[in-house]
Amino acid sequence: ALLAYEYLITFTDEVRLIWLHKKTGATFLFLIIRYHAMITLLILQSLTFLPVSDEVSVDRTCSMYAKVQVPLQFTEFVPWAAFSSLRVLALSRMNYPLASLVFVLACGPFAVNVVCRFPSTTF
């Protein structure tokens, strides 16, 4: 509810500052970051209301929920990393090595989640 409230009270600013200006890569990155959380929340909440009956087992419903949840949660880290690296790039007077380092470090949670979610059985 708090997320929806924040979107509602800032929507007029978004229209004025984003939608009425030229579309750039930064614009699309902003929109991805802004709406990814809301879309993920709506999708996952809608999956919790799936009917469970004799034809649709709980295991199958949970399996489908997990298959949708994992990619949605993993993909939220990459746009944040891109935004952070673009910000560093702008503030550091186009220092590409520093921006690249920030991107790699900001992708750390993504890498950790992938490794923990899909552990290797071989060493």
Automatic annotation (TrEMBL):
Coiled coil: none
Alphabetized Pfam families for the sequence: DUF6533
Start and end residues of each DUF6533 domain: 1-38
Spans through the membrane: 26-47, 96-116
Keywords: Membrane, Transmembrane, Transmembrane helix
Record keyword Nucleotidyltransferase present: no
Entry-linked InterPro entries: DUF6533
Top-rank taxon, per record: Eukaryota
Protein name: DUF6533 domain-containing protein
Organism name: Trametes coccinea (strain BRFM310) (Pycnoporus coccineus)
Species lineage: Eukaryota, Fungi, Dikarya, Basidiomycota, Agaricomycotina
